[in-house]
Amino acid sequence: MATNSELISRGESLFLQHSLHYGHGTTTALDEAAYIVLTVTGNITATDDSVYEQSVDDEQQKVILNYFERRITEKIPAAYLLGEAWFAGLPFFVNEDVLVPRSPFAELIMDQFSPWLEYGRVNYILDLCTGSGCIGIACATRFPDADVVLADISPSALRVAQINIEKHDVSSRVTVVESDLFVGLKARKFDLIVSNPPYVGHEELNTLPDEFYKEPQLGLDGGKSGLDLVHKILASAADYLNDDGVLYVEVGNTDIALQKCYPHVPFLWQEFEYGGHGIFMLTKSQLLEYKEQFLVNLIN
Fold it and tell me: Which of 49, 80, 195, 274 has the greatest count of CB atoms below 10 A from its CB?
């Protein structure tokens, strides 16, 4: 029987021989192979290096080799093969109805959005365009007294989010709402709104590696410029925030385009110790101050 280490090496070698893209939770062929092997063998959270020399039984080895083959021939991200992705130190169920979690939001959540949020005053959180629910559920674990709403336009994505709510035993505080942005939220108000909306422009969308086309395009396509939904969020978010509330939105590579649209808006772009970019923060007062500009861009 092969060991974990031998199978990881085999996977790395196979992946390096083919044109694969990494960026759905891993960044190298070695990491991707290890992710598959250690998940299948139940050792993904192991901290003892001796795990690498453990033997893998024939049945698990068969599963692993099948995943290697499918990763190469079908270009399916490993998280979909495994049905699991990690975010902010937590495992989440994923399938092809949701994007694979990979947002730098994880670092902000782990830091409890310090220093812009006062821990004891965060009672209501909205995760807009929630997908798998990973951002909102991770927020719920870091703010254990807060109620969290996971909103998405996709019923199939919300079914995945509901599975993850139950997986993390937070159903008493976390609920799903089918909503086209804010439309289905009525008069609710929140202390924190977080959103990772579709923000990929059509030009970029047409050049993405094959792996991205395994993901739901609804979760990626942000319109011609990539900013269609972002403009809408900026124009409406203040109406759904409490007085001291804040908005965090991820826009990725469209950050420069967004700043050009609103040259006078003081977006507070977040800095990340562990990599990532393209997340801004605005307070409710700032959203109100520049609301006319947001509305003008929305109309145009």
Answer: 195
pLDDT in tens, 25-71: 999 999 999 999 999 999 999 888 899 999 999 999 999 999 999 99
Total number of residues shown for the chain: 300
Do 52 and 100 have their domain in common? no
Same structural domain, 273 and 174: yes
3 has which bridge partners?
55
Of 17, 50, 82, the residue at which a domain comes to its end is 82
Strand-pairing partners, residue 127, are 150, 194
What's the start-to-end Cα distance of the chain, in Å? 64
Q: Establish if 75 belongs to a structural domain.
A: yes
Q: Nearest CA to 246 among 196, 291, 188, 287?
A: 287
Q: Which of 26, 46, 156, 154 is nearest to 93 (CA)?
A: 156
248 neighbors 190 (Cβ within 8 angstroms):
no
Name the residue among 227, 235, 286, 294 with its Cα closest to residue 262: 294
Backbone angles phi, psi at 13, to 5 degrees: -60, -45
CATH number where 241 lies:
3.40.50.150
Q: Which residue has the higher pLDDT, 287 or 46?
A: 287
Q: How many CB atoms lie within 10 A of CB 75?
A: 17
pLDDT digits (tens, 9 = 90+) for 93-148: 999 999 999 999 999 999 999 998 887 889 999 999 999 999 999 999 999 999 99
Q: How far apart are CA 180 and CA 40, in angstroms?
A: 37
Q: Which residues contact 257 (CB under 8 A, 6 or more apart)?
A: 201, 225, 226, 227
C-alpha span between 62 and 85 (Å, rounded) = 21
Structural domain span for residue 158: 95-299
Q: Are residues 67 and 164 in the same domain?
A: no
